[in-house]
Amino acid sequence: MGVYEFKAGRHFLVRVPKGAELVGFITELIRRRNIRQGEISAIGAVADAAIGFYDQQTHEYHEVELTGGLEIVSLTGNISLKDGIPHAHMHVGLADHSGAMFGGHLSRATVFLTEIVIHEFLGIEKKELERLPDESTGLSCWPA
Amino acid sequence: MGVYEFKAGRHFLVRVPKGAELVGFITELIRRRNIRQGEISAIGAVADAAIGFYDQQTHEYHEVELTGGLEIVSLTGNISLKDGIPHAHMHVGLADHSGAMFGGHLSRATVFLTEIVIHEFLGIEKKELERLPDESTGLSCWPA
Amino acid sequence: MGVYEFKAGRHFLVRVPKGAELVGFITELIRRRNIRQGEISAIGAVADAAIGFYDQQTHEYHEVELTGGLEIVSLTGNISLKDGIPHAHMHVGLADHSGAMFGGHLSRATVFLTEIVIHEFLGIEKKELERLPDESTGLSCWPA
Question: B77 in contact with C at a CB cutoff of 8 Å?
Fold first, then answer.
C-alpha cells in the first residue's frame, strides 16, 4: 500500500547562515545528526536558486536558474534513506520583488536567510524507509 | 474562540502510486486508517489537476483545469470530521515546466508521483473536531 | 551551528473568524496561550493582503498590496521569542481567481476563512530560542 507508520523523534529549529548552499547544508545536517526519516519545512530568502521540473515523458530533469534575490515562500519536503544514508527531497516556491512566484524541485540555492523546521520520525521496531529505483517514474521512490 | 487542542497521534509517510486520483486516494486512506484529525503535506508531481477558487461574494467555487505535467510545489491541509467521517481539506501550489505557479483548493489530480506526510492529532478526552455549516462563508467550517 | 533541538508540546487546530486581521490574530493567540516556540501552517482565503519582499542589498522591506479575494495556497512559518515574547514569522503564497500566485513575507491580511495548524515546541531543559539583531541580514534572527 505504500503507507509507512512512524513514531515522533526529535524536533529542530535551524538557522542557515548567509552564503551557505541550502541543499548541501541540509544534507550535511541530517547526516551529521542522523535524522533518518522526517519532515522538513522552511521560509526565508535566497540570493539565487536552481529549481527542477521533471519531464514525465522523457524522465529527464530540466532546471531553471533564478537570480536577483528571492523570498522562500514555501519549502516542503521529507527525509528518508537513499543508498543507506539520510536524503532530503524538497520542493520550493520562490517569489521575486513583485511577488510573482516560481516553483519546483529544489536543486540548489544560495542562502540569504533560511529558517528550517524539522520533525524527525523514528521507525516502529526500527523499521526504516529507503528509496529504491522505480520503473514507473524513473526516479528513486518509496515502494508503492 | 475556535482554538482546539490535541495530543500527537501516529505519523505517516505515504507513497501514492502513479495514476491514482490524489483526493480520492487521500480520502480513502484517512478513512481506512481512521485518521480523524491531523495535518497533511505533500510534494511530487501530477499529470493534471483541477484547482478551485471560492468566490467570497457569490459563495461559489470556480475550477481551473491544468494539464501537461505539473510539480506539486506545496500541498498543505488538515484533517477533521465532516458528516462524522474523516475529511481532508487541502490547498495546492503547482508549477509548470517554466516554473510558473498556479494554486488553489485541491479538487482533483492525477498522480505521477506523490509523497505525503501525515501527523495524526488525537482529541484530548476524546473530543473531536467536526465541520459544520457556516453562514458567514457558505462553507463547512470548524466553529469559530 | 544554529541548530536548536526541542521536544513536542501542544498541537492546535484553529479557525480564524471572518474579518479578523490574520497576523494580529495569530500574534495574540500565541501570546495568550504562551506558545513560545513552534511551527505554524495554514490554508483558507483572505479578502486582501499585504506581502513583503526584503531587499537583500538595501535591507529594506517593500510591500505589495493584493485585493479582490485570494486563496491562501500555503502559509508556512515558525514561532520563537522576540523581545522576550512569542513572535510568529510567516510567509504566504496566495492565488487569485485565475490561479495565478503571489507570495512573500506575510505582513497583513483580512481573513475570509483561515484554518491553522500549530505544533508547539518545548525547550529541552527549558532552553528558549530568541531572535536577536543580526548584522549579516539586517533582520532579527536566531543566532547562526
Answer: yes
Report chain C residues whose CB lies below 8 A from the CB of B119.
11, 119
Q: Hey, are the CB atoms on C17 and B104 less than 8 Å from each other?
A: no
The per-residue pLDDT for A126 is 86
A56's grid cell: 514525465
Look at residue C23 and give its three-state secondary structure.
helix
Q: Which chains touch B (3 or more CB pairs under 8 A)?
A: A, C
Whether pLDDT at C120 is above 90: yes
**CB-based contact C4 A13, cutoff 8 Å:** yes
Using one digit for the tens of pLDDT, what is the confidence trace for C66-79? Answer: 999 999 999 999 99
Note whether C86 contacts A: Cβ–Cβ < 8 A: no
pLDDT band with cut points at 50, 70 and 90 for residue A1: confident
Show Cβ contacts of residue C85 under 8 Å, excluding neighbours closer than 6 positions: C31
Q: Which residues on B lie below 8 Å from C120 (Cβ)?
A: none
State the amino acid at position B81 in one-letter form: L
Residue B126 pLDDT grade (very low, low, confident, very high; cuts 50, 70, 90): confident
- Give how far C102 is from chain B: nearest CA, Å: 9
Mean pLDDT score, B97-116? 98
Q: pLDDT digit string (tens) for C8-67?
A: 999 999 999 999 999 999 999 999 999 999 999 999 999 999 999 999 999 999 999 999
B80 neighbors B87 (Cβ within 8 angstroms): yes
Output the pLDDT for position C100.
Answer: 97
List the single best residue of A11, A48, A56 to mutate versus B (max B Cβ within 10 A). Answer: A56
Contacts of C44 (CB under 8 A, 6+ apart): C16, C71, C72, C111, C112, C113, C114, C115
- The C-alpha atoms of residue B85 and residue B63 are separated, in whole angstroms, by 25
pLDDT band at A6 (very low <50, low <70, confident <90, very high): very high
Residues of A with Cβ-Cβ distance to B98 under 8 angstroms = 53, 64
Report how far apart, in Å, the C-alpha atoms of A84 and of each of A3, A109, A131, B11 are: 20, 25, 9, 21
Q: How far is CA B91 from CA B13, B23, B40, B103, B104, in A?
A: 19, 11, 10, 7, 5
Q: Which three cell numbers stand for residue C71?
A: 486563496
C19 to chain A, minimum CA–CA distance in Å?
24
> Which of A6, A10, A13, A29 has the highest number of chain C CBs within 10 A, making it the mutation to test binding with C?
A13
Neighbours of A32 (CB within 10 A): 11
